[in-house]
Amino acid sequence: MQKIFFYSLLLLSVILLSGCTQDKPTPKCKKQKLHIKHKIKKNILIVTATAYTSCHRETDRTPYLAAWNNRLKPSIKSIAVSRDLLKLGLTNGTKVKISGLKGHYVVLDKMNKRWKKKIDIYMGCNLKKAKRWGKRKVTIIWDKK
Questions:
Q1: I need a labelling partner for 132 at 20 to 30 A (CA). Which of 3, 24, 31, 106 fits?
Q2: What domain range is 23 assigned to?
Q3: Predicted confidence (pLDDT) per residue in 52-72, tens digit
Q4: Structure pTM?
Q5: What is the C-alpha to C-alpha distance for residues 35 and 58, in angstroms, rounded to an integer?
Q6: Same structural domain for residues 53 and 114?
Q7: Main-chain dihedrals φ then ψ at residue 125, nearest 5 degrees
């Protein structure tokens, strides 16, 4: 009687443990596989952050045209990146989280080649806000591609 109980228990545990290896996974296994599938690796970097604006008096005839031909609008949360960061995956359209700021910012512009490890946060035409921001060290986080 004990042998039958032991073998039944062993068989039951094998069935339960192998439940996720079936061709048609159970709902519980689907959740586990989705959880594993959606783990995204992140890049983290400390950079110097300054702010910039694009008012008519500060730029050429096309103040809202960025380096990749993106159209900037004062309401858009966007940044410009130094060209050394392009190699790290911070290319046109990449979403970036900046420490100390709410929401995600999108890379829509690139900076002059002389800058290294630097981002410029777009402040629309709000020159006071840009001056208040000044120059800071921030941590940026973005998804690996």
A1: 106
A2: 2-37
A3: 988 766 666 666 667 767 878
A4: 0.67
A5: 48
A6: yes
A7: -110, 15
